[in-house]
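Protein modeling request. Please complete all fields; requests missing the sequence field cannot be processed.
Requester role: graduate student
Desired output: 3D structure, token encoding
Chains: 1
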Amino acid sequence: MTHIEYKHLLIFGSFMAVGWFLFIFFWPRMMLYVYKRAIHVKGFGDGPIPVNTLYTQRQALFADPLHPPASVPKLATTGVNRDTLITIGWWDLGKGPQILHVPDMAGRYYSVQFTDPSRNTNFAYVGKRTTGTEAGDYLIAGPGWKGAVPQGMTQISSPNNSVLVAGRVFVESESDLPTAYNLAKQIQVVPLIRQPSE
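Delivered output (198 residues):
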């Protein structure tokens, strides 16, 4: 190979390395942006899912994911999950902390995952493996929040004001679906009401 051919090969290799780095760095963020847009615009067939709310996958969609209603976007049926109901939401903690309530799951597997979309990393979980299955309330606060945590609540600090929340509740069988769905619907979020001293 001549000096010029080595130079071209080096330039091509450099462009490939930079391109591969950019792809690896930005691809997860682009996918999260697409997911966020799908949540806020289309939802899972019942219309947009507002910020700072949670939406639980319909029983009918879980029971027959291969034949969803026409109103259900394709995003809601990709990665079909056959043993857990999905609860989803996108929170803006810049408007203040949110309180996550989970019901008593009586030993049933469940998890609520909190993801920082700017880094595509999960920063906390509430669920059977981390906090147990008893009923509980968790205060989710953004960076720099300095308020008082109400008695009986556990604070979870988010590294970002924007949070993707994904919950899962185990479904044992077809006959268990209504019970699991009722429990999943009880996973709720409400804003923290400001304390009088704040």
